[in-house]
Amino acid sequence: MPDGFSAGDTAFVLISAALVMLMTPGLAFFYGGMVRVKSTLNMLVMSFISLAIVTVLWVLYGYSLSFGPDAGAGLIGNLDFLGMQGIGLNDLTGTIPVTTFAVFQLMFAIITPALISGAIADRAKFGAWALFIALWVTVVYFPVAHWVFFFDKGNGGWLGDRNGVIDFAGGTAVHINAGVAGLALCLVLGKRVGFKRDPMRPHSLPLVMLGSGLLWFGWFGFNAGSALAANGVASMALINTQIATAAAVLGWLVYEKLKHGAFTTLGAASGAVAGLVAITPACGSVSPLGSIAIGLIAGAACAAAISLKYRFGFDDSLDVVGVHAIGGAIGSLLVGLFATGTVGQTAKGLFYGGGFDQLGKQAMGVAAVAVYSFVVSWLLGQAIHKTIGFRVTEDVEVAGIDQAEHAESAYDFSAMGASLSRATPAPAGKTEKTAEKTEVGA
Predict the structure, then answer these.
(1) Which of 35, 70, 277, 399 suits 352 as a labelling partner, its CA being 20 to 30 A distant?
(2) CA distance 347 to 336
(3) Rg, Å, the chain Cα set
(4) Can you tell me the distance from the alpha carbon of 61 to that of 138, in angstroms, rounded to the nearest whole number?
(5) Distances from the Cα of 356 to the Cαs of 102, 279, 289, 323, 377, in angstroms?
């Protein structure tokens, strides 16, 4: 192996990549439990299809556009690595093989468009959604990943490397990017039938809790793995992730109790995700005490933000905007307050003697990614909507998108009903045949 290669670091990042991959099925469960029964499968596969589409595009040109040598001004990579050509087994990124780094970053690219899907649950054509993923990662995610993650000693991405925006693991490139894209698609597709009128409650809170737990588990790879080495920075990123997430659960639940009078399981699961989102950009630059503050603020703020859709009239089905756009922005901005200058980066936040300089840089990063993502996502959504159509018909939406788009249903209630009818004895005064008709018709 070449000089500088570390087997320990390589193993650590490979395991982290596997953990991040698990987050996409975890997200599918989280979203799948939050929708109504008739949309369950569609919600699951909207996340799952990202694993297939983005992987192929990443190999063909995505890695090259994101992490190839800069093509100019820190905006996008060149095409040196089309088809992953030109990458040798002994080529290193730091102490790990380039291929290890590439597969780790691939998992980020996969989950980012999957996050968007929750904003348009119940009403998007599956084929149109698949096309949107392919277009969106090409013109939005791959360039933004280059802006934020590509470092080349001052000649890398224009946000992270050239202007000093701190985003350790993707608060801007992943969460603000996806959350704002979700807002754009909400506006393109319009409101669900029955929005503000029908309750539209989650059909399976156990699935939501399972998905939240898998996301929490996988997020350790997401954040700690971004150190790209098994070192002290990775350890600090991991413990900060745990601390902020725990604090956010508390922050969300306290807000929920004060506002609505109850501690809900949905609130606990959502609070955990809000904390994970907010600590993502900050986990490599803040202290454990800073992580508590970030988690508490994000939990309460995101709990409050999910009501914005009712105030402004956009139908963000599963609160992608309130959790990911707002949570990502909070975490990114709070780096400018809580960065210690002693963890992974040397830049200091306002509370540690750094003045307003880093806060200004963080605000620039948040604004740049939000504006670019919203505008391009809206244009892509409109183009698809005006050509092949992005939204299912009203009849399909009311009847259930699972049957129309996938010819399947998540739960076989007919089989359960038949079993109950056979097991139930005939009521007094009725024949067995009459009782069977009564049960089946109930």
Answers:
(1) 277
(2) 9
(3) 23
(4) 9
(5) 35, 20, 20, 26, 31
Paired tokens of 295: 């988690």
| 363-186-409 Cα angle (round to 5) | 130
Pull the structure tokens for residue 271.
């609070």
Maximum alpha-carbon separation in the chain: 87
Three-point CA angle 57, 61, 62, nearest 5°: 65
The pTM of this model reads 0.93
The pLDDT profile of the chain, 442 residues, written as one tens digit per residue, is 788 999 999 999 999 999 999 999 999 999 999 999 999 999 999 999 999 999 999 999 999 999 999 999 999 999 999 999 999 999 999 999 999 999 999 999 999 999 999 999 999 999 999 999 999 999 999 999 999 999 998 899 999 999 999 999 999 999 999 999 999 999 999 999 999 999 899 999 999 999 999 999 999 999 999 999 999 999 999 999 999 999 999 999 999 999 999 999 999 999 999 999 999 999 999 999 999 999 999 999 999 999 999 999 999 999 999 999 999 999 999 999 999 999 878 899 999 999 999 999 999 999 999 999 999 999 999 999 999 999 999 999 999 999 999 999 999 877 655 544 444 444 444 443 333 333 323 2
CATH of domain 7-398: 1.10.3430.10
SS (H, E, C) the chain: CCCCCCHHHHHHHHHHHHHHHHHHHHHHHHHHHHCCHHHHHHHHHHHHHHHHHHHHHHHHHHHHHHHCCECCCCCCECCCCHHHCCCCCCCEECCEEHHHHHHHHHHHHHHHHHHHHHHHCCCECHHHHHHHHHHHHHHHHHHHHHHHHCCCCCCCCCCHHHHCCCCCCCHHHHHHHHHHHHHHHHHHHCCCCCCCCCCCCCCCHHHHHHHHHHHHHHHHHHHHHHHCCCCHHHHHHHHHHHHHHHHHHHHHHHHHHHHHCCCCHHHHHHHHHHHHHHHCCCCCCCCHHHHHHHHHHHHHHHHHHCCHHHHHCCCCCCCHHHHHHHHHHHHHHHHHHHCECCCCCCCECHHHCCCCHHHHHHHHHHHHHHHHHHHHHHHHHHHHHHHCCCECCHHHHHHCHHHHHHCCCCCCHHHHHHHHHHHCCCCCCCCHHHHHHHHHHC
Which two tokens mark 333? 């901005």
Question: Tokens representing 289?
Answer: 């005490």
Rama region for 74: left / alpha / beta (φ>0; ψ in -120 to 50; rest): left
